[in-house]
Amino acid sequence: MHYLTRAILSLKPGSEFVFESDDYSTIVWHVLEGTAPTAKQIEDEIERLKAEDITAAADRAAAKAALL
């Protein structure tokens, strides 16, 4: 799943949308409760998710190393 998709679903669970080329300006909302997140909010969430993924990968590597 692309980071843009993950970020939007993290910020607006249950929303339905489409977009082109990971471009915020092309998002078309089909289902959205409340207001759409701003580009900045989505960018911040993408950065948070990337950091979370890096931490999870490091944790998996450490757990694997501990088993060896």
Write a structural description:
With 68 residues, the chain is mainly alpha-helical. The chain has helices spanning 3-11, 39-67, and strands at 16-18, 28-31. It contains 2 helices and 2 strands; from the N terminus they run H-E-E-H. The radius of gyration is 15 Å and the shape is elongated. 7% of the residues are buried.
In brief:
This protein is mainly alpha-helical and 68 residues long. The relative contact order is 0.16. 56% of the residues lie in helices and 10% in strands.
List keywords for this structure.
68 residues; 2 helices; 56% helix
Topology, pairings included?
Blueprint: H1 3-11, E1 16-18, E2 28-31, H2 39-67
Antiparallel strand pairs: 1-2
Low-pLDDT residue intervals, each spanning 5 or more residues:
none
Q: How far do the termini sit from each other?
A: 31 Å
Task: Compute the CA-based radius of gyration.
Answer: 15 Å
| N-to-C order of helices and strands | HEEH
Percentage of β-strand residues: 5-15%
Question: Helix content range of the residues, please?
Answer: 55-70%
Mean pLDDT: 94
The major pleated sheet works out as: 2 strands, antiparallel
Give the structural class. mainly alpha
Strand order of the largest sheet: 1-2
Number of helices: 2
The coarse silhouette is elongated
